[in-house]
Amino acid sequence: MIGQNSDRILMSDSLKGMIPELEEATKYSDHFVVATLMLEVANEQRTLVGSMHGVSLGEDVKIDLRSTIEDSFFFVKLFSEGTQITCKNIQLTLGDHSFDRSNILRVSSVKMIEIDHQNKMCTLALDLIEK
């Protein structure tokens, strides 16, 4: 749930060391800011999650996050078709620390940059304005 650390994993001491992939991933949880955007796209609730690469918070919001090329392309396609996209909540998380910005913002501009074809990732740059 947004605003709470519900993504924390509790593990019995007897299981530690048994799931190396999980421990490897959690080892770096405080190295990256994770951005979670709660969106409404054509009256459907969607979540966009990625590693944040930049943010500007003010009356207007600009946020850049790493995402898959597929998710970003889908997002850009919807925007180019004139689909109304609004953001109801932005949560930024670094390790055990997080904060939310909850207000309704309309996506006013989208851009795909830093496209990494080999890893099928890119940076999705979003400009959001007060609705």
What do these coordinates show?
With 131 residues, the chain is of the alpha+beta class. It has a single domain (13-130), classed as Thrombin, subunit H (Beta Barrel), CATH 2.40.10. 15% of the residues lie in helices and 51% in strands. The protein has two helices and seven strands. The protein has a six-stranded antiparallel β-barrel. Strand 6 and strand 7 (121-130) form a beta hairpin. The two termini are 24 Å apart.
Query: What's the total helix number?
Result: 2
How many independent structural domains? 1
Roughly what percent helix? 10-25%
**Proportion of beta-strand residues:** over 45%
Instruction: Identify the CATH architecture.
Output: Beta Barrel
CATH class bucket: Mainly Beta
Q: Give me the Rg, rounded.
A: 16 Å
- The pLDDT mean sits at 82
Give the overall silhouette: globular
Uncertain parts = 1-7
**N-to-C SSE series?**
HEEEHEEEE
The largest sheet has its strands arranged as 1-2-3-7-6-4
Summarize the structure.
The chain contains two helices and seven strands; from the N terminus they run H-E-E-E-H-E-E-E-E. It has 131 residues and is of the alpha+beta class. Strand 2 and strand 3 form a beta hairpin.
